[in-house]
């Protein structure tokens, strides 16, 4: 099984991604770390515990990480995910403690395990801090998959910037520049294709009503947000695609390129992908631009709700 650490900010779609990872036999989830993103990192850690409890996997440790971006003020996305980060779902509190020191956990794990894949579903603050503290440990990181950025698609925080990179652009810029592996960027170009619709929810209700109820509780707020601001029926679930891609790379297609993150001015947080190699810099990323979205959604439903993909 692939050893993975999931760094996240749950978050509605982060929660769906965690459910997917926990239900995937290909993955051995060594730990979950949380970062200031959709919600503050302590709330994210509590939410991760709620998802672990729902999936009966509370033995997986949760570590709280950075409570603010590297260099700038922290802006949460509670307008999108609800004050509680789980769509005002009022899931019961879990009486188990999370740990602090996400970065230490990441580095310690990298030091003692071989072949670890890091999947980042939020701003890259924890990752940048961990690497700054012990770059050598990162030699054992075989893959780094990050949901964030965009290639040609429009942004969701500004005309050009996606939230995870916009929230902490310095951390994102650091990771593209310094990690010893190519950053596999699952950006909005591909994740926007993952539209979770009321029809899909109805399908789950018919086959797995308990799961449907749980998913509906946490996605209702997201449905409303998408309708109100984008007139989209349903909601885009970005983060699960990063987990799916980590397991099944053939689901997405892309190319190697040098990518830079804008850290000042009007395009703050934008990911600029040098597809045509104008800069003559070596590729620091693998940028995913195409996805078999139907297959991806089928796999998501099979894993999280037991729906037969055939
Ligand atoms: C990303 O931002 C967050 O709101 C989501 O959880 C996802 O990780 C999409 O831009
Ligand atoms: Ca996220």
TrEMBL record:
<dbReference type="InterPro" id="IPR023186">
    <property type="entry name" value="IUNH"/>
</dbReference>
<dbReference type="Pfam" id="PF01156">
    <property type="entry name" value="IU_nuc_hydro"/>
</dbReference>
<dbReference type="InterPro" id="IPR001910">
    <property type="entry name" value="Inosine/uridine_hydrolase_dom"/>
</dbReference>
<dbReference type="GO" id="GO:0006152">
    <property type="term" value="P:purine nucleoside catabolic process"/>
</dbReference>
<dbReference type="GO" id="GO:0005829">
    <property type="term" value="C:cytosol"/>
</dbReference>
<feature type="domain" description="Inosine/uridine-preferring nucleoside hydrolase">
    <location>
        <begin position="4"/>
        <end position="295"/>
    </location>
</feature>
<keyword id="KW-0378">Hydrolase</keyword>
<dbReference type="GO" id="GO:0008477">
    <property type="term" value="F:purine nucleosidase activity"/>
</dbReference>
<dbReference type="InterPro" id="IPR036452">
    <property type="entry name" value="Ribo_hydro-like"/>
</dbReference>
<protein>
    <submittedName>
        <fullName>Nucleoside hydrolase</fullName>
    </submittedName>
</protein>
<keyword id="KW-0326">Glycosidase</keyword>
């Amino acid at each position: 099984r692939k050893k993975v650490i999931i760094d996240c900010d749950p978050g509605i779609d982060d929660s769906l991604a965690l459910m997917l990872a926990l239900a995937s036999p290909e993955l051995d989830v060594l730990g979950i770390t949380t970062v200031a993103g959709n919600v503050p990192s302590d709330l994210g850690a509590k939410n991760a515990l709620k998802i672990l409890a729902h999936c009966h996997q509370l033995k997986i440790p949760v570590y709280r990480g950075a409570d603010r971006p590297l260099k700038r003020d922290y802006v949460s996305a509670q307008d999108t995910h609800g004050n509680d980060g789980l769509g005002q779902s009022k899931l019961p509190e879990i009486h188990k403690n999370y740990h602090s020191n996400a970065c230490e956990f990441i580095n310690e794990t990298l030091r003692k395990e071989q072949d670890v894949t890091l999947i980042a579903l939020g701003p890259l603050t924890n990752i940048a801090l961990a690497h700054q503290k012990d770059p050598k440990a990162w030699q054992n990181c075989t893959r780094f998959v990050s949901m964030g950025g965009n290639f040609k698609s429009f942004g969701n925080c500004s005309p050009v910037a996606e939230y995870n990179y916009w929230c902490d652009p310095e951390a994102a810029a650091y990771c593209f520049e310094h990690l010893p592996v190519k950053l596999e960027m699952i950006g909005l170009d591909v994740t926007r294709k993952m539209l979770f619709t009321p029809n899909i929810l109805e399908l789950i209700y018919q086959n797995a009503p308990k799961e449907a109820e749980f998913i509906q509780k946490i996605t209702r707020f997201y449905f409303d947000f998408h309708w109100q601001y984008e007139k989209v029926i349903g909601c885009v679930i970005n983060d699960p695609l990063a987990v799916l891609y980590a397991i099944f790379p053939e689901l997405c297609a892309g190319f190697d390129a040098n990518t830079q993150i804008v850290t000042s001015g009007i395009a703050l947080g934008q990911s600029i992908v040098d597809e045509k190699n104008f800069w003559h810099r070596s590729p620091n990323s693998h940028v995913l631009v195409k996805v078999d979205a139907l297959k991806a959604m089928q796999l998501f439903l099979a894993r999280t709700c037991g729906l037969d993909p055939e």
